[in-house]
Amino acid sequence: MSSRPSSRGAGDSGTVQTLLRKLCCKITGLPEGEIQPYFQHACTILSSNFSTPAESDEHQVSERIRRILVCQGRERDAIRFAELHRKLQSQGLVKNRWAVLYVLMSLSENESKHAKEKSSSSLFVRGIPGYSTSTPFNAGMRRPFKAPPPSSDNIRTPSQMSNNTTASSGISSIHSDVRSDGPTPVPQSFLPSTTFVSMDGERSHKHGTMSRFADALSKTGSDNAIVPRAGRNQTGMMKSQGDNTSFEIPERELVRDLVFILQGIEGKWIKFDVTKDAYKADKQVGIPQAVRLLVSGLSECGWLLNKVKNYVETRSADKTFGLVGQSFCAALHQELTEYYRLIAVLESQLQEDIDQGIGMNVSGISLRRLLVWTFDPLDRLKKLAALVDICKGKKGGALASAIYSYLRHGDPFTRSLVKHILTMVSQPIYATLLRWIYDGELEDIHDEFFVASDPTVRNDRLWHDKYSLRKSMIPTFITTDQARRILLTGKSINYLRQVCLDRSPIKGREAAIKVDTSHAEWMFTQDLSNNFLNMIDRVYKETSRHLLDVLHSKYKFMDHLKAMRRYLLLGQGDFIRHLMDLLEEDLAKPASTLYLHNLTGILETAIRGTNAQFDDLDILKRLDVRLLEVSPGDTGWDVFSLDYHVDGPIRTVFTPECMIMYLRVFNFLWRAKRMEYVLALIWKNQIFNAKLLKSIPELSTILHQCHMLGSEMVHFIQQTQYYISFEVLECSWHELLNKVKEAEDLDCVIAAHETFLDTVITRCLLDEQSRGILTQLRTIFDLIIGFQQAQDSFYQTAQQELMARQHFAKLQKQRSDQGDWGLTEELEEEERKRRIEFLKTVIPTTRPKFAVLAQSFQDMVQQFLVMVTSHQDVSLRFLSFRLDFNEHYKGREPKLQSPANYQRMKKLT
Amino acid sequence: MASMETSKSQRASSAKQTMDGIMEISKILNTGLDMETLASVVRLCESGVNPEALAHVFNELRKESASIKVNQS
């Protein structure tokens, strides 16, 4: 019949009407003639503009039917339905299959949704014959009340029954005899005698109890939510009545509430308890203990979410929080978005359940399902909250460190989460780092990077003071050594740009930058790959190499270093000697009478006169004279000093501190050199006078004394000079040259240079520790000067005497030439007296004078030797061996005989 | 002619099968429709009547019939 072509097409209104008329007859059971009003009504309905139902798709409708069946617990029917549907599809005779199915479904839904009121005529009546006739007046009244579906009506538990009866003590008369047909036998005494209005009476009574529940809940005004459920699922409700409160929240309500809680919003029943800092279900609300536990477990999500959300919100608003913090917030936000997506799915699921399955006890989402579904997100939220906890108050590198501490988590799930977040967080650090090591630019307005820059530092201190490591901001995944290299690399670039004024690009930079930008995770996966390390190393080496090249080639660092050695450390012997020759006279004067311009002139002369003139003009220009601070009684020797002007990049190595050290060393060396010079003069005098004064045999002992003392002094000074120039200067210099040659970066050079200066200072006895020895040495030097003066004055008197004698002899010869007697009595007497006078005055005073000088010199040298032996520096031992090579002093000084003993004694006292 | 006859009878039998299937579905869904009504419903649907409206009609008619019955008795 459906296959008849005439029945097809919407335009065939005649067929439709016939069919409709037939239907009306059939359903109402009235004869043809009386159905006219119904038929017209039906026509109006059909012609009225019904919107096409949402599921105008066969598959959706069939799915929905199947779901309804499954929800009702009729799995077998669902399978049968699927089979039938499939058959229908394969036959293909019915074209509007979805429409047919939809009608059937709607009719079926009415069944469960609106209970009996519409279909009672067919089904309910058939099920319980005679019912309809026994309740003739109530068919209309029945409508307002919601009747339970047959299933729950027919199967009644005793508790429900008793509840009904007890609650309805006043109106017990309205039970019908239909009850007696039920499966549970009910004592007759409780049953009403009247047989009619049973159902409606019970319904109305039940409604009364329900409204009582509703009153109890009136605070929240949710009767409408409670009522259908109460009608539907009395059994569960009644069971739980005893163990908790007077009523129970349906699970659906809780689930709906929980979906709110999952978003961190308070629900209807579950509120935020400020005192306990947790979401708690209302104490007054009837929820079994077990369910309460479930709920509180689930609501943890909400609490965690709020925590993370608060952090993100407060931090995002914080302008000073910095890029790292912002990217942390972004990462958190991303995670939260994922989480919100889950909630959206839950919510739509819930909505769908409500839409279609109000009649079902087993809804799509139960608390337990919720628990299972939120298990992973809860875990994730927990991790996020933990991260938020440790990151509180941190920023920049410290924040990255804090997150990194979670990267070693054993759980791969957590590890990947943390890794993801860390990748995002370290992105800004990585970007800053790359900019820093490639371009030397420090874009870190929030002080997050571990390289700090001090803008107040001027260019001449750039290398030393401008950039520093911010210890707290070094992420733990970057080692201190790497951090140092990173600092150096950027610093080198800045140094090149600003101090060396070198703008030449370093080779291969652009390509390298392009490769590197997207590998932030290299930083914290260094145990897996060497990429980061290699990159840092490569850039560091290239940059440092370039910097050193510029220093050596453009700024002639080595030349300057050598100039220091030659001029300030007296390496250029001929120049120093010549300078001393020229200066000797001036420097003997008191310091206050010296004038710098005179001295500069002399320096110029010295340069012109020696090999120094072939030196680089740039270096010679820097050479200058400097007078140290004058204190009363100083001679020129004490205040004179050479100076070397440094500027530009080399000033980084030759810092003012270093220059002061150079000057101190120069001063010491200058003094030692002077002793050598003085002793040379003394020796010259001795040789000269030894021949002259042979004629005065009385003086020979004194001369011998002088020679003895002089050679002792020469020996001392020679050994000291040897020590200074070979043990101290040459050794350190050699080391310095090696280190500079091998240096990887400028810091190495600076360090090597400082070590060199330190060593020189220490070994030249200029440090604090050797002050005693230095004073001793100075005293010895003074003694040498004293000896020079004493000897000079002795030679002077001796020469006067010699001249007098020569004059006498000359006179004698003259007289004899004139033919006189060469000698007269009185002349001879006079001469003899004068000689005796001379010998009497000079010899007794001079001999002890030299004896005292010799004695004190020897004492001092012994003292000096004792001090040297007990000095910590091993290199000084060589000096003491050389000074006392024949154990001359050892024999005299008991302390020197067993230096070990002496040392122990010294330590004990 | 013979082939036409057979095809006609085949069609009739398949139509019967289809209706049986629909009837069973209707039973599973507890619609309370008998074969005749169901056939009408199917034909109505096939002729393009809005199913939702049709369901509505059914409900209305049932309501009315119930009231009629009440009135009668």
How are the SSEs ordered, and which strands pair?
The complex is a heterodimer of chains A (909) and B (73).
Chain A lengths: L12 H16 L7 H12 L10 H14 L3 H17 L5 H17 L2 H4 L3 H5 L3 H4 L4 H4 L7 H5 L3 H10 L30 H19 L6 H10 L1 H8 L9 H12 L7 E4 L4 E4 L7 H29 L4 H35 L10 H7 L1 H17 L4 H9 L7 H28 L11 E3 L8 H5 E3 L10 H19 L10 H8 L14 H23 L3 H12 L4 H15 L8 H14 L7 H6 E5 L8 H4 E5 L5 H4 L2 H37 L7 H43 L3 H18 L7 H47 L7 H45 L5 H9 L4 H5 L1 H4 L1 H10 L1
Chain B lengths: L1 H27 L6 H12 L4 H22 L1
Summarize the structure.
The complex is a heterodimer of chains A (909) and B (73). Chain A is an all-alpha fold.
Structural features, described:
The complex is a heterodimer of chains A (909) and B (73). Chain A is mainly α and 909 residues long. Chain A folds into 4 domains: 5-173 and 220-233, no CATH class; 412-553, no CATH class; 571-654, no CATH class; 656-899, Four Helix Bundle (Hemerythrin (Met), subunit A) (Up-down Bundle), CATH 1.20.120. Chain A contains 40 helices and 6 strands. In chain A, strand 1 (270-273) and strand 2 form a beta hairpin. The longest helix of chain A is centred in the last third of the chain and has 47 residues, at 771-817. Chain A starts with 12 loop residues before the first helix and ends with a helix. In chain A, 31% of the residues are buried. The model of chain A is unreliable at 1-11 and 112-246 (pLDDT under 50). The N and C termini of chain B lie far apart (56 Å). Chain B is elongated and about 50 Å long. The model of chain B has no long low-confidence stretch (mean pLDDT 78). Chain B is mainly alpha-helical. The chains are: A mainly alpha (909), B mainly alpha (73). Chains A and B meet through helix 1, helix 2, helix 4, helix 5 and helix 6 of A and helix 1, helix 2 and helix 3 of B.
